[in-house]
From TrEMBL:
Pfam families: HTH_3 (PF01381). Residues 1-46 form the HTH cro/C1-type domain. The lineage of its organism: Bacteria, Pseudomonadati, Pseudomonadota, Betaproteobacteria, Burkholderiales. This is Helix-turn-helix domain-containing protein. It comes from the Bacteria. GO terms for molecular function: DNA binding. CDD domains: HTH_XRE.
Length: 95
């Protein structure tokens, strides 16, 4: 999927997505549900919480380790995007 296609799927401008990816703008919390859906993560997984819709086998740590390994396989741009999303979620959680 191209950046333009992904932005269209999220209902945002391609340039806005580009700004999120390079860290010029923060991803708004209101966009997180659409992001986790399209990136095939649950919001609970993103926050390292058990997802009640999934099996309880395996710890949150092992799931997080698998996610980190998967993110490491992404392009640097996509890794930056995931990092920005995490920064946004963690900043919101601290409030």
């Amino acid at each position: 999927m191209t950046q333009q296609q992904f932005a269209a799927a999220l209902g945002i401008a391609q340039q806005t997505l580009a700004h999120y990816e390079v860290g010029r703008s923060r991803v708004p919390a209101s966009l997180l549900p659409a992001l986790v859906e399209r990136l095939m993560f649950s919001f609970e997984e993103l926050l390292c919480r058990p997802d009640p819709r999934r099996s309880s086998k395996g710890s949150a740590i092992s799931r997080l380790q698998r996610q980190i390994a998967a993110v490491e396989q992404l392009s640097k741009t996509k890794q930056q995007f995931v990092s920005e999303m995490l920064d946004t979620v963690l900043a919101k959680a601290r409030k």
